[in-house]
Design a protein that fits this description.
Helix content: 40-55%
Number of helices: 18
Largest sheet: 4 strands, mixed
Distance between the termini: 46 Å
Structural class: mainly alpha
Strand order of the largest sheet: 1-3-4-2
Number of strands: 4
Order of helices and strands: HHHHEHHHEEEHHHHHHHHHHH
Radius of gyration: 23 Å
Strand content: under 5%
């Protein structure tokens, strides 16, 4: 079969497909080794690509061929703006791989909702709210109470990863989807998708466990406010949404996350804090001891001590800058494990729903492999790992 025939593609669809993955015309020229004039001719409608050329565009844009046959570009939700950034990084445009992560998160969000409907499971609306006029300390205390947590630190035996999974299960029981995805843009640590019947929080899979937990509740703060912004622990303003409001939102979300994970009364009653009252320059060993008790980072503890008036802004900034300069991007190690990856990415609830739908006859073997993003022969291993 010859692939030399032209395909009547809507020019706006071609432009949408290119821009939705963050490519410029120059990027396409370089990747396909074609002329700039040809790409512009396709997108202006003065020329049509051949089927063979369309196949190459589909591969580069990571879209199925059928997407290019749309009569008009789809009306997609806007990109999330509430990216939590790495403290040592500057804001940059989203990379093509990062845009693919957002696309994947939206697909997981959509399929999770469809699975719940297929199985007749109730879709619990996320009804918790907050306002910037509220004290984030009080909002954190109220939210812990609404979530059924008592005044003491929520006790979960085990390491940071087990604590994270416990928090994840709790949020999912309250109507918030939580996914962990690879984010190939160094400065980004997480984002949220507030739209849809079930909002979603997306965490960087290879981030440090303590950072994951802070990002999880930082993004929960955004969902409570139903607002977004580009953020890091230092509340640096970056990107097109830079404004007084953005700074206020980020400050609120950082404060809320710290107060939720480290309740003030529990922090002040910790033996190390009791022993060191009156000092402003906290030893790293003491900060680490307290941090381990709450399953958070040393910086979160120092930030909470600052709020309680037990250290100074100057000392906090000095330690923040010191830690940021020493911070390194966590990297994956060991062999790739498909089973572990799919459980981390999607979570046990999502994976369980896939198998429940399969047992019901609503999904085929190929569907299961697609939903879990694993090879067919790995499906039994995923099921056994639940």
């Amino acid at each position: 079969m010859s692939h030399s025939f032209t395909v009547p593609v809507e020019p706006s669809v071609l432009q949408w497909a290119r821009e939705s993955i963050g490519f410029s015309v120059a990027d396409v020229v370089k990747k396909l080794n074609i002329s700039e004039r040809l790409v512009k001719a396709w997108e202006s409608g003065t020329s049509k690509p051949t089927y063979a050329q369309l196949e190459k565009l589909a591969s580069v844009y990571k879209r199925p061929i059928t997407a290019f046959l749309l009569k008009e570009k789809p009306d997609e939700p806007p990109l999330p703006e509430d990216f939590r950034m790495h403290p040592s990084a500057e804001s940059k445009p989203l990379s093509p791989k990062m845009l693919l992560a957002v696309r994947k998160a939206r697909w997981l969000q959509y399929t999770a909702i469809q699975l719940r409907k297929e199985l007749g499971k109730p879709i619990i609306p996320f009804s918790f709210t907050a306002s910037l006029s509220h004290d984030p300390e009080n909002v954190a205390q109220r939210t812990r109470k609404e979530f059924g947590l008592n005044e003491t630190v929520w006790s979960v035996n085990g390491d940071y990863e087990r604590r994270f999974e416990a928090w994840r299960s709790l949020l999912e029981s309250k109507g918030v989807l939580v996914f962990q995805l690879s984010m190939h843009q160094k400065e980004i640590r997480g984002f949220s998708l507030p739209d849809g019947e079930l909002p979603a929080i997306v965490i960087k899979r290879f981030d440090a466990p303590a950072a994951k937990m802070f990002t999880l509740f930082h993004e929960l703060g955004h969902l409570l406010l139903k607002q977004s912004g580009i953020c890091d622990l230092r509340e640096r303003i970056a990107g097109k949404s830079s404004s007084w409001e953005t700074a206020t939102v980020e400050k609120f979300c950082n404060h809320f996350a710290g107060a939720f994970l480290v309740p003030q009364s529990e922090l002040l009653s910790h033996p190390v804090v009791q022993h060191n009252r009156g000092i402003a320059r906290w030893a790293e060993g003491d900060l680490l001891t307290i941090a381990r008790a709450f399953h958070v980072s040393k910086e979160v503890i120092l930030r909470r001590l600052l709020y309680c008036g037990l250290t100074t802004p100057a000392y906090y900034k000095m330690k923040h800058d010191e830690w940021a300069s020493r911070s390194k991007e966590p990297k994956p190690f060991g062999k790739k494990n498909e089973v572990k990856r799919t459980l981390q990415e999607r979570g046990r609830e999502y994976v369980s729903m896939v198998f429940e739908a399969y047992n019901k006859g609503a999904l085929s073997d190929l569907d299961v492999a697609d939903y879990l993003d694993v090879k067919l022969d790995k499906i039994p291993e995923v099921k056994d790992a639940l």
